[in-house]
Amino acid sequence: MINLLFIRVILLLIISSLCDASNYVCDKNSVPCGCGQTSVGINARIINGEDAIPYSWPMIVSLRDADRSEEHFCGGTILSESYILTAAHCVDMFPNDLLFENLTIVAGTHSLSQSDRIIRKVNKIIIHPLWKEFRVEIQYDIAILHLVEPLNLTKSSTLTRTCLPLRQNTLEEIMNYPSNGTSLVAIGWGTLESDGMISDILQQVTLNSIHHFDKICANTIRDPSIHFCAGLYEGGKSKK
């Protein structure tokens, strides 16, 4: 059974740890997760993001809703053959007493519009029990989707599960994960500018974790045991 409290660190979800090098080479024969058809390439100088190398992030999926003309409305990441991690606010509008027949995930894609893709229906949504209670402060924004038919992670070269971090056993470990200054990357099909159109091509942007004591984070991180802070560095200064 998946521990939802532990998963809070997977808000990296779509955020995965990277080294400082511009290329992150992944050997699929030596590690059980996170490797795609191609290696990850990052241009750390780009502040507003860039196109990801096709099929370098094979754990990312697109959430679609038939009531929204099957348009992409949120991202998710593959936890296992049958489970997808996403944000609670993406799916809390779906009634619990239905079979979620309108909700699907699309995997194995680089472009939202491409026809070569893997589609699975969702038959269960598990939302963190504290999400609704703390919704105003955007806490516990975590949900897990169960797929009707499992993904075949063994045979498909365009799919893999995301790499989970080691379990943090103490409050001190939790509050210091990820460590200050860790290089991260955020991935998704978001808008490229305010009120702009959603990008058809998967995007990536480099970030750095920032300690919750930093003044740029101290006013917004209410509880560092469930939140962490990350942002951009411009001219030696941090920007959340």
Record keyword descriptors for this entry.
3 helices, globular, mainly beta, disordered N terminus, 6-stranded antiparallel beta sheet, 5% helix, 240 residues
CATH topology, by name, is Thrombin, subunit H
> What are the segments in which pLDDT stays under 50 over at least 5 consecutive residues?
1-21
CATH class: Mainly Beta
- State the share of residues found in helices, binned by percent: under 10%
CATH superfamily: Trypsin-like serine proteases
- Rounded to an integer in angstroms, the radius of gyration calculated over CA atoms is 17 Å
Instruction: Report the oligomer.
Output: single chain
Instruction: Report the portion of residues in β strands.
Output: 25-35%
Counting structural domains, the number is: 1
If classified by CATH, what would the architecture be? Beta Barrel
Approximate shape: globular
Report how far the terminal alpha carbons are from each other. Answer: 34 Å
Mean pLDDT: 80
Please, how many helices? 3
Largest sheet: 6 strands, antiparallel
Number of strands: 14
SS-derived structural category: mainly beta
Describe this structure in words.
The chain has 240 residues and is mainly beta. The protein has one domain: Beta Barrel (Thrombin, subunit H). Helix content is 5%, strand content 29%. The chain has three helices and 14 strands. It has helices at residues 88-91, 171-175, 215-218, and strands at 15-17, 23-24, 40-41, 50-51, 60-65, 71-78, 83-86, 103-107, 118-127, 143-147, 183-188, 203-210, 229-234, 237-239. The strands form three sheets. Strands 1, 4, 11, 12, 13 and 14 form a six-stranded antiparallel beta sheet that branches. A six-stranded antiparallel barrel has the order 5-6-7-10-9-8. A two-stranded antiparallel ribbon has the order 2-3. The protein is globular. 28% of the residues are buried.
